[in-house]
Amino acid sequence: MFPYLTALVVLPTLGAILVKALGGRSRVREVAIGVALVEAAVAIAMAIQFNPDRAGIPQLRETHSWIPQIGASWALGVTGLGLVLVLLAVVLTPLVILAAWKEDTDPVRAGNYLALILFLESFMVGVFAAQDLFLFYILFEAMLIPLYFLIGLFGGEQRRYAAVKFLLYSLVGGLVMLVAVVALYAAGPGGEQGFLLDNLTGLSLDQNAERLMFLAFFVAFAIKAPMVPLHTWLPTVAQTARVGTTTLLVSVLDKVGTFGMLTLCLPLFPHASDWAAPVIIVLAVVSVIYGALLAIGQEDLLRLVAYASISHFGLMVLGIFVFRQTAAEGAALYMLAHGLSTGAFFLVVGFLAARRGSVSVKDFGGLQRVTPVLAGFFLVAGLSALALPGLAPFVPEIMVLVGSFDGARAAVVVAAAGAVLAALYILLAYQKVFTGPRPEGEAAAIPDLSWREKIAVGPLIALLLVLGFLPGLALDVLREPAEAAIAPVVEVANVEVSE
User: Fold this and answer.
1) Which residues of 274-303 are buried (b: 16+ CB within 10 A; e: fewer)?
2) CB-CB contact of 321 with 280 (8 Å)
């Protein structure tokens, strides 16, 4: 079989090298988006080969000896959840490139930015497909390199501060996880394929050792997710980095946190997951309410979307750690829906910033009268963030709340308030930016969305509508991965109850 996953990892890297080699030539944008579109085509071809009836086990697997001396393998494969997140990454990348088409007038600077975006795409695909724990860790850490330069070289004011803050948070989490990765390998069977996830799942671990390893993994993923109190890097980065960078970071890369919790923490450490769940559920609910409350008070639209995402990630974590099938499926679907919703929201805010040179709500008002298409896209993206029925986030949010009710009623009652708060911060922002009297002066001459901008955000709006009415298109491949992830913890909990 054609090595689809290896091709998906290698192709953007080769494209990045080509873009960089072109130097200051004017065609770097065309080359970059061409590579991204070929990547998307290969990913679609791979998805056609995927069997949804076996979505709970990794498919399209490739396993090759990499560093046999330490038991590391080049092992790739995707479950239904991995497939969905890979598709999310390859769909967003060309849209981000298209949205940023006119950001750099200097072709050299544009080439450097686009090369980093393509490098990042390689790591995004690889981390969701890795079936070797050592390979997963390498890709988990390697993502920091292009992200650091994307933030530090191409951001706004205080970009270096934001880049260093992001790097320090991520490095601390990654180094803590590295200790647990080595400890888990030492507790496993070892050998030339000692890091394969198949060989590390179901180990009989000492109770204290399992809990410490779980906490190390969880902290690293909670930073990525991001969860309160490990979230403070995200609003800083969102406010400072380019919108395209933030779009990929929040819509795709931060899903590594919830993806890791569901597919690594629960199967590898079922006893510890059950032990830590009550505290994690409390932290998840705190994230839901805290993020929503701070979003209400934001004058900066990018920080508003960042705090809204913190609130939404709290719902995903809640759905994972109640260990109920419906809630786990909802959390998995929410990863996709949130990626589409937040991607659209960030891109639309970026279009606003490009027109006014600001993302502060006080610099806007009445734009609905001069930019009706932009206003419409903003409204749809915003309504998806508050989980309006008929848009993609509605079904997963309901699944998380309904599925969690039996296991954590108090948490669900409090978390449900997040939906009310979401309506406040979205509708207030829309009111301040787009309603009111027709603006005067320079604001009255703001152009509406161009065809390029419509094409950049239009597919996301369309997908939000399609998955809002037909969520089964994604749920059919997410059901079995969710069931497989929570099954070890459910089994442990049932045994403890019977004893």
Assistant:
1) bbbbeebbebbbbbbbbbbbbbbebebbbb
2) yes
Among the ranges given (95-104, 148-157, 353-362), the one the predictor scored with the smallest mean pLDDT: 353-362
Count CB atoms within 10 A of the CB of residue 442: 9
What's the whole-number mean pLDDT along residues 51-67? 92
Does residue 442 have a pLDDT over 80?
no
Q: Mind listing the pLDDT tens digit for each residue in 88-107?
A: 999 999 999 999 888 877 88
- Degrees to nearest 5, angle at CA 416 with 413 and 417: 100
Residue 183 CB partners (closer than 8 Å, separation 6+): 209, 212, 213
Give CA–CA dist 346/350, Å, rounded: 6
Query: Cα–Cα distance between 179 and 490 in angstroms, integer?
Result: 27
Q: Are 350 and 460 in contact (CB under 8 A)?
A: no
Q: Which own/partner contact pairs does 299-303 have at CB distance under 8 Å and 24+ positions apart?
A: 299/360, 299/361, 299/362, 300/239, 300/359, 300/360, 300/361, 301/349, 301/352, 301/359, 301/360, 301/361, 301/429, 301/433, 302/238, 302/239, 302/243, 302/246, 302/346, 302/349, 302/359, 303/235, 303/238, 303/239
Give the DSSP letter of residue 362: G
Give residue 349's identity as a one-letter amino acid code: V
Give the chain's mean pLDDT.
91
pLDDT at residue 202 tops 90: no
**Bridging pattern class, strands 59-67 and 72-78:** antiparallel
Counting residues of the chain whose pLDDT is more than 90, the rounded percentage is: 73
Q: 54: which residues sit within 8 A by CB, 6+ positions away? A: 480
Residue 498 has pLDDT above 70, yes or no: no
CA 32 to chain centre: 22
**Which residue in the block uniquely carries the two structure tokens 């911060």?**
425
Alpha-carbon distance of 408 to 415, in angstroms, equals: 10
Nearest-angstrom CA–CA distance, 383 and 378: 8
Q: Are 74 and 237 in contact (CB under 8 A)?
A: no
